[in-house]
Structure formats: structure tokens, C-alpha cells
Amino acid sequence: MSDGTGVDLEARLAEATTFDPPESFVEQANVSEPGIYEEFEENWPECWERAADLLDWDEPYDTVLDDSDAPFYEWFSGGSLNAAYNCIDRHVEAGRKNHAAIKWVGKRRETLTYTYQDLYREVNEFAVALRSLGVGEDDVVTLYMPMVPELPIAMLACARIGAPHSVVFAGFSADALATGMERAESEYLVTADGYYRRGNAFNLKSKADNALLDLDRGVSDVVVVDRLGDELSHYLGEDQHDYTTLIDGRAGETVEPVSRDAEDMLFLMYTSGTTGEPKGMKHTTGGYLAHVAWTSYAALDLKPTDTHWCSADIGWITGHSYSVYGPLALGTTTMMYEGTPDYPDRDRIWEIVDTHAVDVFYTAPTAIRAFMKWGERYPNDHDLSSLRLLGTVGEPINPRAWKWYYKHIGNGDCPVVDTWWQTETGGMMVTTLPGVNTMKPGVAGPPLPGVNVEVVDRDGEAVAAGEAGYLTVRKPWPGMFRTLYGDDERYIEEFWREFSDDADRSVYFAGDGATVDEDGYVTVLGRIDDVINVSGRRIGTMKIESAIVGVEGVAEAAVVATDADAAGDARVYAYVSTESGRGVDDALRDRIVDRVGDRIAPFARPETVVFAPELPKTRSGKIMRRLLEDIANGDDLGDTSALRNPETVGEIESAVGDR
Ligand code: PRX
Predict the structure, then answer these.
(1) If you measure from the C-alpha of residue 271 to the centroid of ligand 1, how many angstroms do you get, rounded to a whole number?
(2) For a surface tag, which of 251, 589, 608, 626 has the fewest beta carbons within 10 Å of its beta carbon?
(3) Of 144, 160, 364, 183, whose CA–CA distance to 281 is shortest?
(4) How far is Cα 21 from Cα 475, in angstroms, rounded to an integer?
């Protein structure tokens, strides 16, 4: 196989540590001027007008950034706009009413296409219906919904009438839903009877009803989408309404989009975090929408003619920003898929890419490692030549997985953007610009133009190239969360105190460890609390994991340390899953241990290597390290209900027992 440069791809992949975007990509890229970095730096913060210019404003803003009350920054103050108008109406008005806005693929291969006109119609009808139920401007509407088109429709209907939404991921428990509703003082809930997963029907309504029983303040109205039809009958209580009946009663009715101040809340998003209380991240209308539209344009290179697929659930920030708001603001076609990647078979994702001729595909490293583990025959069965750009987000991607993605999915023709950001940041912060920068597998890239990232030591001093430190952001950015809802104090304490002084609270601490190389490229090592202490030295688990996944036959690895013993020493445990069909033996174990010794240091060598068919993951695809620590320490495991694959726990425990 060879790529556009005529060099054998196989050979290049084996040797190269950098990859340039293909000429053909650069020629058509939305952003291809290398000077953009300097231009943004010299013209900061006005550079961000370039993002705001992608939107239609009802009233122009008069200040780009108001930093008079840091860290309570305001962006585009004085301006007003409506997010739903920007995502729908203006495309209809521009003559693109019959262009596909959302393409939804259901678990039975059924496809629904919503043109911008269809979206306009249904969003209006549901917005009118919500209003008639009493939803007013600034009332928080909670959405507890699976991956059905009614989810983005409900989000946009809320945005249209100026009611912030708070989406609670459908996989979360009744408890999480109740807590989210209580904290947001939300009196309205939109949910569904249930959803399909791997061909089975799941009941969501009963979970929602349980949550409602727990609410001190009660609920005003509940709307229920009937996803499962006859497969699961559900009961509508008092003040509970059927979605279809509601919108049918409003057929053809419209409501003027409410003009919102740039700083008005567009949505809340509750994250549970690794410890403690759920945090309600408040995102705003102007800054957030400008940031996600701009990064969809510059980093995902989206065009109105593209079909874009961000495979994240819309219940997460990734789905909010890059399935819904970013792509729709740009008038793109966005894909939504209800099912799982391996049902009915492991080629499901590639079948969809092939059938719908997807141009841009954005997913998580954990999915890429699963694809890699399943083997290339699944993508090879399909025509993936429509793809132009690939992206990843959510955790560090090891170079082997990056190269596999680049080769087997992108055929060596598609740039890969490894995008670092967070629920807090709203949109992408660190990534290569695919039409500008050289890519380095495993390295996210330089901060985006206008984003100021610094990796610092404990004293807040910038670390030398290659040294690990704390990832901080030293200037505000438009997509940033504005506070933790109802808890300004905690907002400051948790995110702005660590590396700021009292006079200047403008340094944001992301909670991640990172390194920067000579070219200013950032490698994100993972959460700081994933740093372990072995033989008196601190090391990021990610470093050891990436050494291990470099071993032939290894699919995925998670490293934890046991609690320190009396002498202060902890032991390193590595949990490893292998590629399909690859047996495990002592030779593989030795290779893993040796490689860590060679690549990092002898002290970092895992004392115990546990092989397991799969690692325990949360529903958002993050490896549940706490659980692996408990197993290593022989502690009680506590609650495992947040796991996507709880069956792995028993398998791992018995593997540990076998040791
Ligand atoms: O640790 C970083 C990791 O995911 C965290 C943010 O998680 P969440 O708020 O759930 O948002 C996920 C989607 C944006 C970060 O603090 N992370 C995210 N992207 C990357 C990453 N780690 C390494 N490389 C990335 N590209």
C-alpha cells in the first residue's frame, strides 16, 4: 500500500514519528495559513471575533472579552443571538432547507433523515408545546433521553425559547437524574419510554419515574418519547404527556427565536467527576456557540456539504459540542447512531461510514483500541474512501492505536486530529490544525490559535521541554464554563486557585498532567490523580501504559499502584487485554515487564501483570481505575453499577486469583 507521496505506507508507519497532512487535504482545508498562530497571538482577544463571525447576531457585541471580574469572564458582552436560529433557521433562509441536517441510524438499520426544514418544523412545534406547558425563559429543562432524534430536537427547542437544557446521560441512574434535577431546580423533564441496546429493549421511563419520586420539589410536567412502541408499554401519569401527541397538536405552529444575551446560559451539564459531588457546568450562548462553531470549522474542517459523525453519546459534552451545536451551526449533516459498534457485528461503524459516505469521523481512543483488537478485516470489508479527516478525544491515544487508525481507517490519506479538551472548556483547546500542522502520533499538538496553554511545575513555573508538569490555561477562551451552577466559590477553589495568586486569578488548572516538546506540542498524560508513587518516585500511569501497549499483541493496558506499605512502597499492577485470538503466556508477560524497564525505568516495571479479556470501563469509556486499585489491594469493590461491562470484574478477580 502506498500513499500520495509514493512512499510505502507500511514502511513509513513503522519508522516515522511525524506525518504531514496530504497536499490534497491542505488545498481544500478551511484553515491552511500557518500565520494564523501569530495573527491570533498579536491580536488577542480580538482574534476570537473570527469565531463570533461564524454566527448570526441579533445585536452585535460591543466587547470581545470583559475580564474585569476574573475568573468570571464574559465574552461578546452586549451581543445577543439565538442558538437554534443559528443552527437551523439561517440555513433554511439561505436556501438549504432540503439539505440533510440530521441522519439518524437506528438499531435495525432503519435510517431517518431530518432536513433543515424538517428540523425547523419539529423544533418549532416542540418549542411551542414546551411553552404551552409553562416553560419560560431561563427555566431549566432536564433531558433524560437515549440517542433518538428527539434529543437534539428537544435541545434546540429549549434553546429557541431561551430555556437552558440539562441533559442527563440515559445510562445514568435514577439517583443521578434526581440529583441533577434538584440542583438545577428543574421542573420539567423530557424522557423516553426506553431504548435499544444490543437488540434488547431497556426501560428508561421506570428509572425516570423513580427519580421523580425522590424530588423534594416535585416536577411540573414530563414529556415522554415513545421509542419502543409495542415492545414496551408505558403508563403516563398525571402531568405526563406523549411527545408525538403534543407536537401533533401544534402541527405547523412556530415561535420566534428568543434573543438571548451572549452570556445567558445555553445549557448545564452535570459531571460526576472522580470524587465527590456532581458539578453543574454552566455554558453560555455566545461564547460556547462561537467556540464550538470555530473549532468545528478549523479543527474538524467541517463544510456545509459534509456528513460528519461524532460517535459520542449526545448525553456527554462531546455530543453536545460536536454532534449538535458545532456541526449544525455550520450547516453540516450530522450523523446519530443509536446502537453499539459491535452489534449486530463488529463492522457496524464501517458499514455506516460506507453507506452514508461519512466525510469526517470523530471518536474516542478506547473505541479505536477496540477496533484494533477486533482486527482490520472489519474495516477492510467496507469502502471508507469518503473519509477526509479523522479525530479522537477523551483520553490519551497511544502511538500504535493512532497509527492503526491512520492506516486502516484513513488509508494514510486522512489527517488525524487528537483533540484535548474537557467538559469545562466547552470545546477543543489543544490539537493540530489539520490543514496546517505536522502530526505526531500520541501527541495532541500545539494549543489552538488564541489558546494559551502552559505546562508548569508545582510552583507554577514552566517546565523544560519533555518534563512532566501540570496543564494550565493562562488566558480565558470563549467556550469556557462560566461557573459551577450555584457554587461560585467552588468554581474558584477547584479550578482557579491552584496556580493563581490572589491578585490574579486567571490561571485555570485543568487537572491533567502533560509534557511539551521543543515544537510546543503538548502530550497529555492523563489526570493528575492518575500519577502513582513507586519507590519514592512519581510516575504517570499513562507512561507505563503506553509502553505496554507498544508490545505486539497487547490491545489495552491499565496500570495502578497498590496502597503504600509500611516502608512507603507501592507495587505496580498492570491489567492487560490482548488482541483477539492472541493467547497469553509467560513470554508475553516477560516482554511487557522488560519493555517497561527499557522504555521507562526498572522501578516502574509492573510487579504483577493480570491478563483479562476486557478492562472495566465506565459508560463514557474511561477505565475505572478505582476498581482496579481495589482489586490490587484486595479491598471490597463497592458499587460497580456505573460500569458498562460489569462482567469484566469477575473475570479480572479470577485472573488475579490465578496468579
Ligand atoms: O484527562 C483529559 C481527558 O479527558 C478529560 C476530560 O474529560 P471530559 O470532561 O469527560 O470530556 C471528555 C471530552 C472532551 C481531560 O481532562 N482527555 C480529553 N481529551 C484528551 C484527553 N486526554 C488526552 N488526550 C486527549 N485528546
Answers:
(1) 13
(2) 251
(3) 183
(4) 29
Q: What would the DSSP string read from start to end of 106-117?
A: -TTS-EEEEEHH
The secondary structure of 523-588 as a DSSP string is: EEEEEGGGEEEETTEEEEHHHHHHHHHTSTTEEEEEEEEPPP-TTS---EEEEEEE-TT----HHH
Q: Which residue has the cell 458582552?
A: 77
Q: Going by CA atoms, what residue is nearest to atom 15 of ligand 1?
A: 422
pLDDT higher than 70, residue 4? no
User: Up-side HSE of residue 507: CA atoms within 13 Å toward CB?
Assistant: 20
Q: What is the DSSP letter of 268?
A: E
Question: What fold, for 114-258?
Answer: Rossmann fold (3.40.50)
Domain ranges of the chain: 114-258, 530-658
Ligand 1 centroid vs 259 CA: distance in angstroms? 32
SS3 129: helix
The chain-wide mean pLDDT, for the chain, equals 92
394 C-alpha vs ligand 1 centroid, how far in Å? Answer: 4
> Which tens digit of pLDDT belongs to each residue from 588-630?
999 999 999 887 788 889 999 999 888 888 776 677 888 898 8
Cell of residue 595, nine digits: 519493555
**What residue owns the CA closest to ligand 1's atom 11?**
422
Closest residue (by CA) to atom 6 of ligand 1?
A: 422
**CA nearest ligand 1 atom 4, residue:** 394
Out of 3.30.1330.30, 3.30.300.30, 3.40.630.30, 3.40.50.2000, select the CATH number for domain 530-658.
Answer: 3.30.300.30
How far is the centre of ligand 1, averaged over its atoms, from the C-alpha of 591 (Å)?
A: 30
By the 8 A CB rule, do 405 and 416 touch?
yes
CA-nearest residue, atom 26 of ligand 1: 420
Half-sphere exposure of 634 (CA within 13 A, CB side): 2
pTM (two decimals): 0.86
Cell of 428: 477543543
Ligand 1 atom 7 nearest Cα: 422
Which residue's alpha carbon is at the smallest distance from atom 5 of ligand 1? 422
**Most confident segment among 91-105, 209-223, 259-273:** 91-105
Site residues for ligand 1, CB cut-off 6 Å: 317-318, 393-396, 418-423, 444, 510-512, 524, 526-527
The C-alpha cell that represents 565 in the structure block:
506499605
Residue 580: is its pLDDT beyond 60? yes
